[in-house]
From TrEMBL:
It holds the Pfam family UDG. SUPFAM superfamilies: Uracil-DNA glycosylase-like. It comes from the Bacteria. This is Uracil-DNA glycosylase family protein. Residues 26-183 form the Uracil-DNA glycosylase-like domain. InterPro entries: HI_0220.2, Uracil-DNA_glycosylase-like, Uracil-DNA_glycosylase-like_sf.
Length: 193
């Protein structure tokens, strides 16, 4: 039962020895959710607040989806389940990769308890590799360019981080072609407010 599993995940200490800021699993899920958002792992702001996508990346993501914060955080409709649930710490060029133990241990238990998911957004390379496996292309750009190949189950997206502004400028087709389709699909999945 999801109601039993979520408290176990939120109390997880599995990677505590590897997390410089300690464990603080961040996720939202309900069995009724129809949209699943999978990113990599919480960043520093999300680790501090405990609210997923509570940063500039989240603002851009909500804009892409065409959702208000209230709609985005309505877990009855939108599940937010990152590849790893805790902030992994910082490396030389940004956040460290998500801890693999989290995905391997918790996702096989959690995902079957979300039976109403109609679309899973795979945000960034880690989520795409984890869910698509060998069906992911060699690069994030190639995977996102092939977005129509993964529908209706998955939709790969670049990470909406402000650090990716150069990527958005180099690939204007993303906001011109993918974002409007994404908004249409999301609106069709979620009840109108």
């Amino acid at each position: 039962m999801l109601e039993e599993l979520l408290p176990q995940i939120r109390a997880c200490q599995m990677c505590a020895a590897h997390l410089p800021h300690g464990p603080r699993p961040v996720l939202r899920a309900a069995a009724s959710a129809r949209l699943l958002i999978v990113g990599q792992a919480p960043g520093t702001k999300v680790h501090a607040s405990g609210i997923p996508w509570d940063d500039q990346s989240g603002k851009r993501l909500r804009s892409w989806l065409g959702l208000t914060p209230d709609e985005f955080y309505n877990e009855a409709h939108v599940a937010i389940v990152p590849t790893a649930f805790c902030y992994p710490g910082t490396g030389k060029s940004g956040d460290l990769p998500p801890r693999p133990e989290c995905f391997q241990h918790w996702h096989p238990q959690l995902l079957p308890l979300l039976p109403n998911i109609q679309l899973t957004l795979l945000i960034g390379t880690y989520a795409q590799k984890a869910f698509l496996g060998q069906n992911a292309k060699a690069t994030l750009t190639q995977t996102v360019e092939a977005w129509q190949d993964y529908l209706p189950r998955f939709l790969p997206l670049p990470h909406p981080s402000p650090r990716n502004i150069a990527w958005f400028k180099r690939h204007p087709w993303f906001e011109r072609e993918v974002v409007p389709t994404l908004q249409e699909i999301v609106q069709s999945l979620l009840p109108s407010s």
